[in-house]
Amino acid sequence: MATRFFLSNGPRRLLTLSVIIPLLVAHTIQAAEELPVQKTDLLIVGGTESGCAAAVQAARMGVKSITIVNDIEWLGGQFTAESLVAIDENRPPSGYGNGVPFPRAGIFKELMDRIEAINTEKFGHPRPGNTHVITTALPSDAERAFRELLEPGVKSGQIRIISHQYPVKVHVEDNENTLRLTGVDFASSESKTPTLRIDADVVVDATDWGDVIRLSGAGYEYGPDLKQKYGEPLAPENREDYPLTDMNPITYNMLIEETDEYQPIPKPASYDIRNYTKNNYPRDPAYIYGARRIVDHYGFPDIEHPDVILLCFAPCDYPLDILPKAVVDALEATEQGASQKNIVEMNREQRQIVFEDAKQHSLGYLYYLQTAVHDEMPDKTHSFRRFKLSDDFGTKDQLPPKPYIRESIRLHTMHMLKQQETTGYGNDSLNFADCMFHDGVACFQFEYDFHPTKRVFLDKGNPAGPWQNAFRKGRTWGPPYSGLSLFPARSLIPENMRGLLGAQKNLGYTSIVSSAVRLHDQCMAIGQGVGALAAVAIQNNRELHAIPYQSDMMEQIWVSLCTNNEGYEPAMLWPWRDLEPEHPAFVAVNQLSIRKLLPLDPVEVAFQADQPAEESWKQELLKISQDHFDATELSLPEGKFTRGELATYWWDVVRLLDFGFPHQQPGDQDGDEIADAQDPLPFTTGISSWPEWRPDPSEDGLPDNLASLETLVHQFNFGGPNTAPVANFTLDQGETYSDARGYGWDQSLRDQHRIRGLSLESLKETFIFTRSHATWEYALPTGKYQITFSVGDSSHEQEGQNVTVEGKSALEQISTRRGRFKEVSLPVEVTDGLLTVELGAPKSTTNTCLNWLRIEQVK
């Protein structure tokens, strides 16, 4: 067995002991003597929210020795040190609006309950802010909540927290070409000299930038993934316009507090007003008052604390693709080529150069608000000049200890999570994801959300001049959204390194998916899953790589995450939209769902626990278990039950049975000729969780087949000017009829269109509508034709829709469910040279929503 280890500034190849001493000198990391070794069961590097959640979960599962090593004092990551204190949660496709796609659960809910209790104690209100999210907090109060969450484990002696230390070297054993991470050396935040070595059975990388992963030699990725790599619909085609330095930007968030003075901050040395005047979001800076007020004593008159505002907006976003000249010069002075590195590849000194410029950019925005915007405000009552930087962080510059980090290293794992796997079934974001993994350990839903990743220099491309951030095509904030998704254990486990787990944003997913899995609750839910996975491996002496394929181990993880332990909130294993953790059936429904022992389909995302259990549902429930356990003797109880009551009863029946994954053959468990290493669903035939489920083709909002070129006359897609083009369809934007075009409406409907954007299928995501009556005509020679069209709305139920074609009533008072459509095909005869379609009905007050229309000639 050979011992190998890696250095923070060195190359990623393995380094043997024979070459290590010169490299130590070259990298100014000196360790003439071996460090004394401290041993722990679970080493968590990084005090982020994900790292803290992992520690709490592992301690609750009985892991005896857990060590958190953090490079600063503050715990809590985004909640605290990064000052994203308008706490962002999973969000449904309806967007902001104080709603979430499924209830808070698990350790995240416990933390939020603590934060809201602290808010109530301090301000008299659990949610004292006025933002587009649900809960806000001062960073120091959120940090207190994390300390309280960890306190039982600290008091029991299970959790030890070491601050102001960062990883500089890792120890890796090579046993017959199997690499295992065994320990990490740390240096003080003020030094490069290792002073501390900790060995562990399992090491979790919950750092900001995946430093342990990078040091270990485990495979990782960064920058935009091209479409050819993973086949993602939103991925770019070429590298030319999407450099590897392109990342979701960092942001130095600022917390400002109301005063009685009108005193702007000192003008930043590098301030250039042109850096901020070109930004169009928000167009009206006064919008910030309604979007990011952390404490709102105007909205809550009994709050005596001054207003506190979070400045976290696109003008503060700092792209990482191309850096300003001053930053480039400073980086090159540290190492030739440093300015061309992706930020994950930089060392701490180099990153700090970038951070300092990002700080100045954010301060410049505040100065801009306090001067240029102030001078233009007719009413100075809400002037930003009345606000000063908060002292909440205790830092010299009054800025948070760290920038807000949206994207990091992407660990190369057993399974790389891809956009098409997380998209809602049928490209509908309101559905469960297309792949509901057998080894899920957390739930999520969010838009594929990139802030501006591109830096554009405004003065003829001069990198020493002013700049603005901008979006790259396909890398914007949503839509589209993911579906209601599961995060698999396999996407936490590196493919080529034992004893290591990813956490925080150092996970096994693509760049696109990383943009949808970066929120506060997601990081905590995944961190909790990491803690459970690590605990099961440690306590059963199992290899992490084996656990996702061992049903008994996964069951231990699921039971530990979702159980009715008094005082602990059960975590969510399956993203039911309507099931609260307090519901008596919560645990049973989640445990049955993750095992696929409940009747499930991709579009029914509400469990309806308090509704009666229909006979057909009961029989399907019984058959699923009889087939899985090969137990025809299983039977249902007599009597009437709600769904929740029956699920609770059934969980008690099957929980002690040998669940077992349906193994068929080694390397290809489901026999679908997709090797397990590449198969997102190794126990389900094919690459979708719903191979047997098919929607009614007359309700999916899409043409059932391609029109024959011999009979096709024309096809129209109805929508607004920003509608994505659809091959072989003409976009009708609601304009009035003209002879030149040969089609149009009897009135302008240009303002009566919607683009829902819940999926990539433009035909069903766009429509023109009328609440009364409108007529559309198309110049068409006399003859017989087949007309096919679709009405409906992917986001909302639409009642009372009416369509008439050539005087024939095709639809009368028809209602469509959210995400369900009505497609109609009928023969008509045109005798006057015009095909006439009437939308809606006179005196109607309900919408009729026309998606698309096809005209075919009947021969």
From TrEMBL:
Q: Where is this region: Disordered?
A: 664-704
Q: Where would one find the signal peptide in this protein?
A: 1-31
GO molecular function ontology, one term from the record: oxidoreductase activity
SUPFAM superfamilies for the chain: FAD/NAD(P)-binding domain, Galactose-binding domain-like
| Name this protein carries in UniProt | FAD dependent oxidoreductase
InterPro entries per the record? FAD/NAD-bd_sf (IPR036188), Galactose-bd-like_sf (IPR008979), HdrA-like (IPR039650)
- One matching Pfam family, short form? FAD_oxidored
The organism's place on the tree of life at top rank: Bacteria
Q: What keywords is this UniProt entry annotated with? A: 4Fe-4S, Iron, Iron-sulfur, Metal-binding, Oxidoreductase, Signal
